[in-house]
Amino acid sequence: MNDLNTLSKILMVALVITFACALGGAFIPGTVGQWSGTACIIILIAAPVLRVTWLVVDWTRARDVKFALLGCALLVVLATSGAIALLR
Amino acid sequence: MNPVALAFAAFLTAAIGTLGGLGGAILLVPILVLSGMEAKFAAPLGLVSVAAGSLAAAPHQLTARVVNHRLGVATEIVASSAALVGALVSGLIGQSLLAVLLGCVALVAAFAGGRRKGIRNLPDPSLTAADVGETPGTLAGVYPLGDEFVPYRAKRLPVGLLGMGIAGLISGLSGVGGGWVKTPTASEVMHVPVKVAAATSTFTVGVTAAVGLLVYESQGRVVVSDAALVAAAGLVGGTVGVRLQHVLPPPLVRRGLSVILAVIGVLLIVRR
């Protein structure tokens, strides 16, 4: 499939939204600014995970099984790292 | 640090970090600490800068097909696992010894990149724009260099994975991203073209930063207003950095990277 152009467009939208949220978080005082800044951070955390997940689906569709499994393994490692770090 | 200086520092370090695939935290965190910010608040801002630079670079790098995602995913498994081990044992190693080790690694990486001349991977006239991208099932691919197209294949995988493991270990031990080790490892050990190495590292440091940010956010160490300012400046800096990466010739990127690494190495050793 190799549908990286679609992923590129999605990440471009995420980039614009993140920038808008970041400006809101930096310059709008009070609760609105706080929420805007938090939304910016959430997108920054979610975007790379979305990218790896997209790659896994893309490689699975393309029958590139070896790298699809490696992508799954990376997601497991990331989830495990996050869980261990949060529990410590 | 006043907001204008913070924004400028975030912009500059994200631009340099994205250009060289370094991540930027290795530059931003020392600047923030030197300006008087507590390290426990500077480290999350460094990761925000890395994540912002990675997101800013992604659309352009995906369209240009210069990232080798298969290489990035394969090496990131080792790097992330080692980072977890590093984080778990980080209390066992003294910060002064760690700073010297980091400085030595940076100087060796700077020397390895700086001493090499010319371009290792040469264009193949038989290739066309349709060949650009990754080769499925392998750690090979083709990237555009001006009007020509350059084939490459990652070599010395075991040694390269060892290098990525060291990068991850360093990242876990020190709390800064490992991009400044990953890019030279991919370029100088695995013989991946420096632009592909830098772009792939920019992708992987974003993944690592996401996990780190999640932890810092849960610990309440992210000051949202400062993080938002750093993110905004980092997104602009990352966009500028990736444009520069696209137009600058590979030897210039490699030598620039060597100079930055040398500065980082000296700073780490002197400041310990």
TrEMBL record, chain A:
Entry keywords, A to Z: Membrane, Transmembrane, Transmembrane helix
Protein name: Unannotated protein
TM regions (residue ranges): 7-28, 34-55, 67-87
Entry keyword Transmembrane helix: yes
TrEMBL record, chain B:
TM region(s), chain numbering: 6-34, 41-62, 82-112, 159-181, 196-216, 228-246, 252-270
Annotated InterPro entries: TM_pro_TauE-like (IPR002781), TSUP/Inactive_protease-like (IPR051598)
Pfam families named in the record: TauE (PF01925)
Keyword Transmembrane attached: yes
Listed name of the protein: Unannotated protein
Topology term for the membrane: Multi-pass membrane protein
Species in which this protein is naturally found: freshwater metagenome
Major place of residence: membrane
The entry's keywords: Membrane, Transmembrane, Transmembrane helix
GO cellular component: membrane
Cellular location(s): Membrane
